[in-house]
Amino acid sequence: MKLSALIPARGGSQRVRGKNIRNLHGKPLIFWTLDRLLEADSFDEICISTESEPIADLVRRHYAAQDVRIIKRPDELATNTSSMQSVIDHYLTASPGIDYYGVFLPTYPFRRVETIRRVCMELHTGFPIRASAVTESLISSRDMYYPTSSGVKPFFRPPSVYAGYMSACYTFSHRDWPDPDWRRHGYTVNERHLRLPVGLEENIDIDTEHDFQMACEIAAGKRFVARKSVLHRTPSADLLLPEGVDPEAFLDYLGDRVPTTKSPILCLKKSEKPSFMFNIGTADPRAYFCSEEARNAYVACPAVRATSCNSDQQPHLVHSRHYRVLPKENPFTVDDLPKPRWHARNDKKYTLNELIAWDNVIMMDDLRQQDFYLEPTTLQHLSKDSHDATAYSVRHGLDTGTADFERVSERQGTPRCRSAS
User: Fold this and answer.
1) Distance, CA of 275 to CA of 224 (rounded, Å)
2) Radius of gyration of the chain (CA)
């Protein structure tokens, strides 16, 4: 059984120019991924696929002592619209002896070595046909909405289902079972699928300049710290707010909008990454989605399906977990959820219209402009009383050293164990 690690690293990134070789806390971004893979010592081959000679030359110079293979990617596979699967196919054609491969985008700099080792050991059993990462934080299906001209509507009918967002931090597959071939052979989304939980720092994906600056802070030792949620009981509504937010100021912002069970007030934020567990493309929409309209609004557009880039994803709105307005009269509980109504396949009357007018929608982008607003999650250096940041970094595989990346070339490579074919 032979395992490989593929690093797709084109030079033509649009939103953050030259990001794959941009300096992140002392070394190029792509080196963060290479160093993790080499330290894991779990692959028969580590390969970089690129059309960029500057990227290839940088890797050759600084990883001369390590066995890192570079394959030249054709220019037609290095455009904004090139599919990831075409890049993978190009690599597999040049690597006929590989059984399993992992795709490691350089935009995830904070992967954990122990996670890489663990999944590779699982793949050597031959049982998983694929593995992917999901965030530890679960999202409820009833907290996901899509915009219309009159307001917002939920994607899914009740009851609530919980699942984690898919992450491209770790993606492994058997060469004979690429997505969606496993579906064509009768496997469901959960069968022979190893899912790997990832934390907040680990899931940082550098797509924008803001992402890059956040990664710089994490590389310097900061960690995500959340404010405590506080429930404020007021005469008109119960407010769930981050600690430190003035409830009276929030009520003044609401103005005449008084929530009721028939007209709730939602605090919605934009989501670029809809949860993959809810995207059951082959399922009857009457059994899960609120309507055909909801299903069409949820399914990824062709550009997203081809490139796996969420920048072209249709709008997805998610109810904030930290800013919530709960009605006083007949407060909502899970027990109040209606039971799912399963329809026969020839029943065309499956539309569930739960429109919430725009007047009752608060967008988090607008809320952030208010003087009382406080970010529910911030990046901070953890105090030694609560947590030792250095020990945390070591345990979770985060490189917070300040050594210049030129020293990488001085490191002596050690032979990696080769698995039996």
Assistant:
1) 22
2) 24
Please enumerate in sequence order all residues whose Cβ is within 8 A of that of 38, keeping only pairs 6 or more positions apart, or say none.
46, 63, 66, 68, 413
For residue 338, what are the CA distances in angstroms to 142, 334, 352, 386? 12, 9, 12, 43
**Strand, coil or helix: what is 325?**
strand
The residue among 287, 267, 269 whose CA lies nearest residue 278 is 287
Please state, in angstroms and rounded to a whole number, the distance separating the CA atoms of residues 9 and 37: 15
Among the residues of 301-360, which ranges form H helices? 302-307
Residues of the chain with pLDDT under 50: 281-283, 341-348, 385-421
Distance between CA 71 and CA 402 in Å, rounded?
Answer: 31
Structure tokens at 36: 């993790």
Kind plus residue range of the DSSP H or E element containing 105: none
Dig out the tokens for 156 from the structure: 């899914």
Structure tokens at 243: 């600690």
Show Cβ contacts of residue 307 under 8 Å, excluding neighbours closer than 6 positions. Answer: 80, 81, 82, 83, 84
The two tokens of residue 246 are 């003035």
Backbone φ and ψ of 162, nearest 5°: -115, 140
Residue 412 phi, psi (nearest 5): -90, 125
Q: Per-residue DSSP letters for 1-33?
A: --EEEEEE--S--SSSTTGGGSEETTEEHHHHH
In tens, the pLDDT along 228-262 reads 999 999 988 899 999 999 999 999 999 988 888 77
The confidence score (pLDDT) of residue 81 equals 75
pLDDT, tens digit, 9 for 90 and up, residues 28-87: 999 999 999 999 999 999 999 999 999 999 999 999 878 899 999 988 888 877 888 889
Q: What residues are paired with 4 via a beta bridge?
A: 45, 101
Under a CB-based contact definition with an 8 Å cutoff, are residues 266 and 323 in contact? no
Tokens of 398: 């985060």
Q: Which domains does the chain have, with CATH numbers?
A: 3-136+163-205+398-410 (3.90.550.10), 224-378 (no CATH)
- For residue 420, what pLDDT is reported? 31
d(CA 383, CA 222) in angstroms, rounded, equals: 10
Please report, for residues 11, 100, 103, 310, 355, the alpha-carbon distance to residue 167 in angstroms, rounded to integers and kept in the order given: 22, 19, 12, 11, 30
SS3 call for 334: helix
